[in-house]
Amino acid sequence: SKDPPAKALTSCNTLIAKGDHWDLTSTDGEGFCAGLGEIGQALTDFSAIICLGYGGAAKALIEKAQSTVPTTPIYVLKRSPENNRTNNGVTFLPFEPEAFEALLKGFPKALVIQCTSAPLRGDNLERFSLAGLKGGFVDLVYGTPSALLKQAESLHIPCQDGIPMLIYQALLAQKLWWGQAASFSDMKAVIMRQR
């Protein structure tokens, strides 16, 4: 596009043909929020948001949370050396079970979002515990979720894997491309048949 973007994107997952150029957008944040609705939750239900990992999806979800619930504290546990600092309203902490447990003690009604690809690389994150969590849990990985998803289920914490977000992201992209989209139930049925 010849015009500068209205705001810089932290991640992009959708390209839209616009004549002689492409527009970029991300359906991550809206797709995630719509997915939360599948377990009867919304961002406004939580006292804090805790992200395990800081990839593109996490950045888009944080951006959506900051615009939707601007006073809700956001914490990110990540492996890089920039730990223990706050930047743009997000507090970064070490990717360690002790830091995670301290956050859950302070924010038992938090939403925990597992944003890493660790389960896909053989690390199921079983060293982390959701004990004391009364909020919600979403594992963005689907097919090979972390051990945390099974923990959340056994603790009766509202939880889900990444399938609802994946479906809603696709539906939002379809609407941008074609002005209409398939239904959530039809898309979910197709995915479940593939499992």
What does this structure look like?
35% of the residues lie in helices and 19% in strands. The chain has 195 residues and is an alpha/beta fold. A hairpin with a 2-residue loop joins strand 1 and strand 2 (21-25). The protein starts with 13 loop residues before the first strand and ends with a helix.
Gyration radius, in Å: 17 Å
Please work out how many helical segments DSSP would assign: 6
Number of strands: 9
- Low-confidence runs: none
The termini sit apart by: 40 Å
Helicity range of the residues? 25-40%
The fraction of residues in strands falls at: 15-25%
Instruction: Tell me the structural class.
Output: alpha/beta
The H/E string reads EEHEHEEEHEEHEHH
**Mean pLDDT metric:** 88
SSE blueprint and pairings:
Blueprint: E1 14-18, E2 21-25, H1 28-37, E3 49-52, H2 56-68, E4 74-78, E5 85-87, E6 90-94, H3 97-106, E7 111-114, E8 136-139, H4 147-154, E9 159-160, H5 163-178, H6 184-194
Parallel strand pairs: 3-4, 3-7, 4-6, 7-8, 8-9
Antiparallel strand pairs: 1-2, 5-6
